[in-house]
Design brief:
Layout (H helix, E strand, L loop, with lengths): L9 H21 L15 H10 L6
């Protein structure tokens, strides 16, 4: 059995996804909505709390 693996450029894939996402967000904003991201954590786990704290520090475009 032979598998057809192929190598992808992760940076190019990420750039394309971000470009599509930006278009979608711009479309939502044009209709008067402000998109946002929400997260729900269940329980009291320090590792999860610190993960979300660092996610909020990521740059926004």
């Amino acid at each position: 059995m032979q598998f057809g693996h192929k190598v992808i450029n992760g940076r190019d894939a990420a750039d394309k996804m971000l470009s599509v996402l930006k278009e979608e967000v711009d479309s939502i904003r044009a209709r008067g909505w402000q998109p946002s991201l929400a997260s729900i954590t269940v329980g009291d786990v320090d590792e999860v709390s610190s993960m979300f704290a660092t996610k909020n520090d990521s740059p926004r475009e």
